[in-house]
Specification:
With 316 residues, the protein is an alpha/beta fold. The protein is built from ten helices and twelve strands. It folds into three domains: 69 residues, Arc Repressor Mutant, subunit A (Orthogonal Bundle); 119 residues, D-Maltodextrin-Binding Protein, domain 2, CATH 3.40.190; 103 residues, 3-Layer(aba) Sandwich (D-Maltodextrin-Binding Protein, domain 2), CATH 3.40.190.
């Protein structure tokens, strides 16, 4: 058994495809198959079942994946420690981010970080917060950045809040509310709402805040992502509740109107999450400090920073 075989097996298990694993690892599909077969022969087990064009883990495969992730995680920790000894010349940071953070907050900061530290490799996965937490716990990402609404109570997680994200009501520019400054929560019940599909931590946080005020939304349409919701609202199909940082460009271009609710602070916390006991490389610490510096330097920004540096305070 070799580390390359374990990496190939892990990629095939994660992607449920030998072909996609080959693309990720820059191998040929026969080379991937050969490495899987070699593992199966060595341990005398079947690791995958084929179902159509996908492959799924057998019970033996699940055992192998758990062990492989542990082994590869220890190897990465050792590599990071060696890189730290050599200084911040190189390194890799695996970041997982929930949708709003990953799409609207991180790209610009990542671009600036890469320009300042070109030798450091950045890997970013964007998905629902629940999935990102699973990736953190499985050691597939080093650092998660997610919003409140995600399940952050797992004992294996360390959590540190770093900012407050504000929700706003968005309407098309021709809407009757477009010239108003605020909206009363009770008024929302009469409006058709366009929302993202269930599972969004952003949306669940906003819904809980409104439900606590006795507001029940009239959901007329569910779409797959925030961009679809914004387009639908812009087209006059309804209104929605979104993170302010997700609609900055549309508001500036006067394509959408953003309205706060009167008498109700629609906010949620944004947090760093990582697996307890995780050894952060120097590169990861440098990124976190850089991220917070950028956030704190953005005057009038959304989200609002609440953490000056990563060492401030205790884990929550």
């Amino acid at each position: 058994m070799t580390l390359d075989q374990l990496r190939t097996f892990r990629a095939a298990a994660q992607l449920k495809s030998f072909t996609r694993a080959a693309e990720r690892l820059h191998l040929t599909q026969p080379a991937v198959s050969a490495q899987i077969v070699a593992l199966e022969k060595e341990f005398r087990v079947k690791l995958f079942d084929r179902i159509g064009k996908t492959v799924v883990l057998t019970e033996a495969g699940q055992i192998m994946l758990t062990s492989a992730e542990g082994i590869l995680g220890h190897i990465q920790t050792m590599q990071q420690a060696f890189e730290d000894l050599a200084g911040l010349g190189r390194g890799q940071i695996r970041i997982g981010a929930s949708n709003v953070v990953g799409i609207y907050l991180l790209p610009e900061i990542l671009g600036r970080f890469k320009k300042k530290y070109p030798p450091i490799d950045l890997m970013l996965e964007i998905n629902y917060a629940r999935h990102i937490i699973d990736q953190v716990l499985a050691n597939r990402v080093d650092l998660g950045i997610v919003g409140e609404g995600a399940p952050l109570t797992d004992e294996r997680l360390s959590v540190k809040r770093f900012a407050q994200d504000e929700f706003v009501i968005i309407t098309p520019k021709q809407h009757a509310w477009a010239k108003r400054q605020t909206i009363a929560p009770a008024e929302l019940a009469k409006q058709p709402f366009v929302i993202t599909e269930r599972g969004s931590a952003t949306q669940e946080s906003g819904f809980r805040l409104l439900e606590a005020q006795g507001v029940k939304l009239n959901v007329m349409m569910e779409l797959g992502n925030i961009e679809g919701v914004k387009k639908a609202v812009e087209a006059g199909l309804g209104i929605s509740i979104v993170s302010r940082c997700a609609i900055l460009k549309e508001v500036e271009a006067n394509r959408l109107k953003a309205l706060p609710l009167s008498g109700l602070a629609l906010q949620r916390n944004l947090s760093f999450v990582w697996r307890k006991g995780k050894h952060f490389s120097r590169a990861t610490h440098t990124f976190i400090d850089f991220f917070l510096t950028c956030l704190n330097a953005s005057k009038g920004a959304s989200p609002k920073p609440i953490l000056a540096n990563f060492t401030a305070g205790k884990e929550e």
